[in-house]
Amino acid sequence: MSSRIENISRDFLTGFLPDVAFQINLSERDRGRIEEIKNLLNSQPDLSYIVYFNHISFNDPMFAAHIIQKFDPKYSRHLIAPASHFHTSPENPRNRKFIFMINLAKKTGFEIIRVIQAYQVNNPEYGYTRDQAQSTYKAWLKRLKELRMSDTPIGCLISPEGTRSSDGVLGVAESGILATGKFITPVIYIPLGISYIDEFKREKFNLGKRIHLAIGETIIQQSPADQPNLNDVMTKLALTLPEDMRGQW
Questions:
Q1: Is residue 248 part of a domain?
Q2: Which of 3, 94, 206, 208 has the CA that lies 20 to 30 A from 185?
Q3: Is 68 a member of any domain?
Q4: Which domain does 27 fall in, by range?
Q5: Dihedral, CA atoms, 87, 89, 91, 96, nearest 10 degrees?
């Protein structure tokens, strides 16, 4: 696929499609923050970014990709995201929707690395061992290191909770987001709050629903040693959400 056709496909899937499939609300303040991030990335071509979001429904990654399309419309970074190893296994017929979304992500230019999430380790429902989980996690970090060693700036999409919230409230964060940032410095952390104005279903596409997207205060990490505090990272995400969705943050 030529780069021109690939960009058209990306623009359709991450720009046009979410706008027609959902009723997305962005405040003027958030539109202004998007422009600020866009200008910053243009002025610092070596700056990587991590868009991190609260995970409450099946289609949240699409909203995050939609925001990326707005502040990085030229796709100037190598796009990469971790995905659940269990939920992307083609051997499980219940994973059809997940695999469909993964294939869409790949069409928009995302490289997908399958990882085993912490809550799935030594859990009989999933059957993964700690060694298996560590192996996938190391593969994720190794790929990030390879990209950075080749002087490739990165655009990363990640849910710090590691799984969808069962009650819509922001949960406990895994430390993987900070390890990711450490490997791709200099990097800007961009919090994205997702909240539905209408009722929604955790495991549905929620087509036509009204959704509010909010961009939080960013954090820039200049070097591996300059690591932010996880509580600060999550608090900035929590502040993009209605109070009843902020949980412990």
A1: no
A2: 3
A3: yes
A4: 3-243
A5: 60
* pLDDT on residue 3: 67
Tokens encoding 165: 């919230």
User: How many other CB atoms sit within 10 Å of the CB of residue 169?
Assistant: 16
Quote the number of domains for the chain: 1
Q: pLDDT (tens digit, 9 = 90+) per residue, 35-88?
A: 999 999 999 999 999 999 999 998 899 999 999 999 999 899 999 999 999 988
Residue 162 within any structural domain of the chain: yes
Q: What CATH number does residue 110 fall under? A: 3.40.1130.10
- Which pLDDT belongs to residue 5? 66
Instruction: Please give the structure tokens belonging to residue 88.
Output: 């992307």
Q: Is residue 249 part of a domain?
A: no
User: Which two structure tokens, joined as six digits, stand for 231?
Assistant: 């509580």
